[in-house]
Amino acid sequence: MKKSLVGLMSLTVVFLLAMVLSGCGEKEQADAPKKAVENVIKIGFPIPLTGDIPDVGESSKNAAEMILKQVNEAGGLEVGGVKYKLQFIYDDNESKAESAVAATTKLITVDEVLAIIGPQASKQAVPAGGVADNYKTPMISPWSTNPNATLNRPYVFRGCFLDPFQGPVAANFVTDEFGATKAAVLYDIASDYPKGLAEYFKKAFEELHGPGSVVAFETFTTKDVDFSAQLTNIIRANPDVLFVPQYYNEVPLIVKQAGALGWDKPIMGSDSWGSGDLMGLCGDDCKGHFFSTHYAAAGATGATKDFIEGYQAVYGKTPDDVAALTWDSVNIMLQAIKDTGGLTGNLANDREAVKNALGAVTNFDGITGEMTFTPDGDPIKCAVVVKIDDEGQFSFYESVCP
Amino acid sequence: MHQTTSTASHPRGSLELVRRFFANVPLLAWFCGALVAVILERAVGLSMAQSLGMPRIPVLFGFLVFLKQPALIPGALGYVLLMNILPICITAKIGAPVFNLVSRILYKMPLVVTALVHLAVLYAVFHFWADVNAYRMIMLKMMLISILLTLSLNVINGYMGEFSCSHPGFMALGAYAASLFTVGLFVNDQLFGPAMMTSDYAVVFFPLGLFFTGLVSALGALVIAIPSFKTRGDYLAIISLAFTFIIKSVLENLEFLGGPRGLSGQPDWSSLPMVFIIVVFGVWVINNFVTSTMGKALNAVRDDEIAAEAMTVDTRKTKIIAFMFAAFWAGVAGGLFAHVLRFVNPSTFGIQKLAEVLAMVYFGGLNSVYGSIVGAVSISLLGEALRPLEILKWIIIPLLLILVMIFRPRGLISFKEFNIHNLLKPRG
Fold first, then answer.
1. CB B78 to CB A16 under 8 A?
2. Fewest CB atoms within 10 A around its CB: which of A249, B133, B317, B426?
3. Which CATH class is domain A163-293?
4. Residue A113: pLDDT above 80?
5. Which among A145, A212, A213, A211 is positioned nearest to A174, based on CA atoms?
6. CA gap A13, A19 in Å, rounded
C-alpha cells in the first residue's frame, strides 16, 4: 500500500518537473516567433456554425476566410505605416441567445479581439450587442434587422438596411410594376423578421392605396408546412399581388401550394429569399417572381462580380446575401481600422478609435451598395429588386435608394 | 472534483488509495484549498501561464487550449496541475489537522453558523475565480442558475416520478414576469415609458421581484397540476409539453411584451452575490422540502399512488404543492437567467431548453440533490468547454448521456440524500 502511494507521489513530482522544464524550454522557443507575430489584429466572429441556421454561419465564415486569405497574402493590413497580419477567430453561437452572449464575452475578454463581426440573426445580435457595448468593443452585425440591436449602443453597427425601409420598397415596387391596388400578405407570426416586415409592408401599402387595400393579412406559425387554408382565403379576397416575407425553406412550399390552388399573379418576396438553396428546393415554380434584397448575383459588375467569381471558385456555389453582407461588414471594419491612422497597442484605446472611425465612414463602396452609417449605427444604403429569371438566376431588375 | 480528475487514469486500486489518503480531510479544508488556489492564481497566475508558454491564464481548466491549440497542451496541463490541483490537494492534506480543529469547533455551533462559514468560503472561491475573467463570470452564473433549474425539475421528475416537460414554460413565465417588473418600473424603455422608480434599491427590489415572479410561475403550474389528478406518465408528459408550447405561442403573440422580437434592456442586477445567495437559498429550501414529510409523500405518490392514498396521503394536495413549488423555483431561475442575458425572447424557451434541463436531471441522477448539482455543473461546463468543437459537441454530449444511461440507468448519483451534517462534520 504505502509503497504504491510513494510511487504515485514520486511519479507526480517527476511529471511536474518534466512539465516545468519543458515549459521553460518552450518559452525560449516561443520568444523568437513571438516577435514576428506581434503585429496581429484579431477579429472575432460569434456566428451560428451549428443549430437552426448553420448555412448562415458557413456563408459568413466562407466570406471572412476569403478576405483573410486575400489580405494576409498581400502581406497584411497596413495601418499607420505598420503591416498587421489578420487573425479571425470563429466561435459557435449555436443559434442560441445564451451561447451568443458567452461566445461574445469570450472573444472580447479571453481572446481580446479588436472588433466583432456578427452574430447574424437578431435573437443573438440583440443580447450580444449588449455585451459588446458593455465592454466598449466595436461590433457590426451584418444581417440583423431588429432595431434594438443597435439602438442606444454607440459601439454596435449593422451591415444591412432595416425593415422600415424594405417594407416601403416592396410596396412601391408592386404598385409601380404591377399596378397593384389590392395586396395580400402571408407571414409567420412567431418569427421576428417576417412579422416586422409584413407590418411595415402593410403600413406602406395602405398609405398608398387607402385603408383596407391589404385585403388579406394571413398568418401561420414557424415549422408549419400546410398553407392551403390561408392561401384559399387569400385567393378568395382577390388581391393583385401576394407579399411573402419568408425564409428560403418556406417559400417553395408556399409558392407551390399557391400554384396548385390556382394563383397565377405575381408573388413578391423579401431579402430572406436570397439565402440558402431557394432554387434547388423550388425549381421552376419560383421563376418569374420578384424580391427585394441587398445585391443581385446575376449580371453583377465590377467588385461585386469579382467577389462572386472568387467565391464560386473556392466554394463552388453562388454567395448568398449573408456572405455578401459579411464581406462588406468585414471590409468596412478593416477600412475603419485603417482610418484610425495607427494602433497604439492599448486595446481599450484602439477599440475606441475604431468605433469613432466606423461612425465617420462615409460612402463606403461595398458590393451591396454604398454605405454611410447614421448616428444610430444603421447604414443608409440602396436596395435592389431582383427577378428570378428563366434560368433560375437572381437577376438585377431595379435599384431603390432612400 | 479535482482529486478525481487527477486519478482518472489510474486503476481502481489507486483510486481507493487516494480516497483513503484524503479520508481525514474535511470539506472546509477542500474549500480553503480551493481558496488558496484561486488567490494564488490571481497573484501569480499570469506570469506562471506565460512561463509555461501560454499568452494568458487558461480560463476553463485548459479545455479551450486542449481543443484549439494542441501545441500548448503540456503547458496547459502543467498549469492546471500547478495552479489548481496541487494547491488544493496540498493545502487540504497538510492543513487537515488545523481544519479539523476548526471544523470541530464549528460543528458544535448551530448548523446555520457552520453552513454559513462554509458558504462564505465557497463564495470567496467563486469570487476570486470569476474575477480573473468576465467569461468565467458569465459561465459561473449560468451554471448556478442551471443548478436551481435542474433541482426544481428533479422535484417533479425525480421525487414525484412524473415526467413533466413544462419547465421551459415555467421558466419563460418567470423570465418575462421578472423582466416586466424590472424593465417596466426601473428602466427608461420604449415599450413601457420612462422609469417610475430609481434603481438605488436594486438589492431589495430584485429579490422581491423574483419572489413575485416565482408566484406567477406557481400560478401557471396550476394548469398542469389539475390535469395531473387524472393522468399520469406519458399522458401527463404530453399535457405538460403542450403547456410549454402554449406559453411560447402566447408570448409570441403578446405585442406589449415585444412578441417574437423579445424584451431587452433589463438592468444588470443578476450580480454574482445575488445569484449565489438566491441559488443557495433555493437549494436549501428545496432540500428541506424533499426531506420533510411532504417529500416523503411525494415519494409515496411516485411509488404507488393508490397505496399512498390508502395510507392517508392527500395525493391531490401533494401534487398541487409539488408542481407549484417546482414552478416557483423554475420561475426564479428564469428571472435570474433573463437578467444575466439582459434579453429574453420566446424561442429561447422551446424544445431545446427542455432537452437541456432534462439531460441535466437524468445525467446527474433522479431523486437526489447531489445528483442535480453534479448534473447541472457537468452538463453546463461540458457544453461550454466543448463548444469550440462545433458539430462534434452535439455528438459527444449525447453519447455521454447514452453511456451514463447504460451503466447507471438512474443517473450518476441517484437516490442519495443530501446530508448536511455528514458533509460538514470534521474527519478525525
1. yes
2. B317
3. alpha beta
4. yes
5. A213
6. 10
Q: What is the pLDDT of residue A272?
A: 85
Mean confidence (pLDDT) of chain B: 89
Q: Would you state the cell numbers that stand for residue B291, as one nine-digit string?
A: 426531506
CA separation for the pair A28, B117 (Å, rounded): 45
A91 with B259: Cβ contact below 8 A: no
Residue recorded with cell 414525484:
B160
Residue type, B244: T
Q: Are the beta carbons of B260 and A190 separated by less than 8 Å? A: yes
Q: What is the DSSP string of B116-135?
A: HHHHHHHHHHHHHHHHT-HH
- Give which of A123, A152, A163, A193 to mutate to test B binding, by max B Cβ within 10 Å: A123
Residue A353: strand, helix, or coil: helix
DSSP B347: G
| Rounded mean pLDDT, A166-185 | 92
Q: What is the DSSP letter of B83?
A: I
Contact B56, B41 (CB under 8 A): no
Average pLDDT, integer, range A258-286 = 88
Q: Element (H or E) spanning B322, and its range?
A: helix B315-341
* pLDDT tens figures, B11-36: 567 788 888 888 889 999 999 999 99
**Encoded amino acid at B61, one letter:** F
B213 near B331, Cβ under 8 Å? yes
- pLDDT at res. B377: 95
Nearest CA to B345 out of B202, B168, B135, B134 is that of: B168
Rounded to the nearest angstrom, the gap between the alpha carbon of residue B154 and the centroid of all alpha carbons in its chain is 12
DSSP code per residue over B212-268: HHHHHHHHHHHHHHTGGGT--HHHHHHHHHHHHHHHHHHHHH-GGGTGGG-EE---S
Q: Is residue A299 classed as helix, strand or coil in its secondary structure?
A: coil
**CATH (one of 1.10.3470, 3.40.1350, 2.70.70, 1.25.40) for B134-423:** 1.10.3470
List the single residue in A24, A122, A195 with the smallest CB-CB distance to B259.
Answer: A195
The residue of chain A nearest to residue B138, with distances taken between CA atoms, is: A102
